[in-house]
Amino acid sequence: MKRVLLLGGTGDALAIARHLSAAHVYSLAGLGRVPADLACSVRVGGFGGVDGLAGYLREEEIALVVDATHPYAAQMSRHAHAACGIARVPLWAVRRPAWRPQPGDDWREAADWRGIVARLGPFRRPLFTLGREPLAHLDEIPASQYWTIRCLEAYAGNERANVIDARGPFDLAGERALFDAAGVDVVVSKNSGGRATEAKLAVARERGLPVVMLARPGLPEAGRDFDDAASAREALGRWLDEPDS
Ligand code: NAP
């Protein structure tokens, strides 16, 4: 029986994991919820770098790695690429296409945290929707700003910041209410792609608010690339049905 290692952390990965039988492994970094209702085995936590992952692939006799990590989890994708090369295991990747600006959008790209901070200079009420990174900078908030930070983690804010612990999907009505309540005048986002978290971009557009967009990291090439879970699942089903070579 061919064994698949699915690297997850996204809705696409979970959608694929739901179709994997007990022989296969779904791997999570441990940042979010760990599903308890899957037929496949679930492992949580890092492999110990490239060598650790290459060793794991050999020991567990993994025949295919499917990298369905978040597009910003670049280190994991690079490690998977290198480890698959060492262990001679094929690598597939599921990568959601990036969002593209639409008419009326005012997107300002930033390469990193410093770039984000520089672009926020003229604004007072940013809404951060790029994960936990702002939590490390709560003591650096300028006196002119009040931050609203939405991330997966419950975390204490301070007098200059409110941290909202929430998990998508988010809809238009909810995002409008949040923008109103927080007085948002600029949005900070990763370019995650997909439907679950794009409503904030529509609300920014309808209100003429800028979006500071963190640029996607460069990712290594995979043997096969898929845009969504459905196409990856279909190909995986066919691959599993093929006899072992
Ligand atoms: P990363 O920087 O690429 O990975 C850091 C390390 O975490 C990896 O080297 C690996 O440790 C471990 N790791 C990551 N994904 C793993 C997986 N699926 N299974 C086992 N180990 C895994 O990625 P990150 O720290 O997870 O996140 C980077 C960015 O992606 C952040 O901005 C985060 O907000 C965003 N993001 C991540 C996830 C997620 O579930 N990972 C979900 C949504 C958004 P070893 O080197 O020890 O193997």
Fold blueprint:
Elements: E1 3-7, H1 11-17, E2 25-28, E3 41-44, H2 49-59, E4 62-67, H3 74-87, E5 91-94, E6 107-110, H4 113-120, E7 126-129, E8 147-151, E9 161-165, H5 172-182, E10 186-190, H6 199-207, E11 211-214, E12 224-226, H7 229-241
Parallel strand pairs: 1-2, 1-4, 2-3, 4-5, 5-12, 6-11, 7-8, 7-10, 8-9, 10-11
Helix pairs in contact: 1-7, 2-3, 5-6
The chain binds NADP nicotinamide-adenine-dinucleotide phosphate (NAP).
Residues 7-9, 27-29, 31-32, 46-49, 52-53, 69-70, 72-76, 79, 131 line the site of NADP nicotinamide-adenine-dinucleotide phosphate.
Key attributes of the depicted protein:
245 residues; alpha/beta; Rossmann fold; six-stranded parallel β-sheet; 7 helices; binds NADP nicotinamide-adenine-dinucleotide phosphate
Which ligands accompany this protein?
A: NADP nicotinamide-adenine-dinucleotide phosphate
> Could you estimate the helical fraction of the residues in percent?
25-40%
Order of helices and strands: EHEEHEHEEHEEEHEHEEH
Q: What is the name of the CATH architecture of the largest domain? A: 3-Layer(aba) Sandwich
Number of strands: 12
Compute the number of structural domains.
Answer: 2
